[in-house]
Design brief:
With 155 residues, the protein is α+β, with helices and mostly antiparallel strands. The protein has one domain. Helices cover 23% and strands 32% of the residues. The strands form two sheets. A six-stranded antiparallel sheet has the order 1-4-5-8-7-6, covered by helices on one side. The longest helix is centred in the first third of the chain and has 26 residues.
Amino acid sequence: MNGKPVVATLVLATVLAGGGMWYAQEYGYYDRIDPADGAIAVDTPAGTVDLDLIGFEGIDADSSPLRWRACARAENLPADAVPYPDATPLIGPRWFDCFDAREIGRDLERGAARAILAKSEIHTDVDRVLAVYPDGRVFGWHQYNDKTPERGVMD
């Protein structure tokens, strides 16, 4: 009978810690990007093109360079944008429902969308990648690049 309070305390502490971790990952670090600040530029061989965006929704966090996500419609997608091989959309928080990484990934695999490099080295060893659909929908995320595989380490 003396062990019950100890077990109850351990279970309660585990539940609280798990709930806190879930909240931190799902809500705690993310901030919505003001649509007025939601510019996306694409580097092309001819220069940088600022996209004319409609319906921009975006999130970001200071805790990681990989937490940036964006959804919008672009009217001036550059035809000479650099393709991005091995694009892998990263899953975001559930509440940011305009961005479905699994669906975007499937669309990239079957050719319903194409991946382009928006900005190389947006952060050290991180690229900004966009999935572009023929109807002008654009979904963006940050992805680690692998520019130095022979070294096996990151700077």
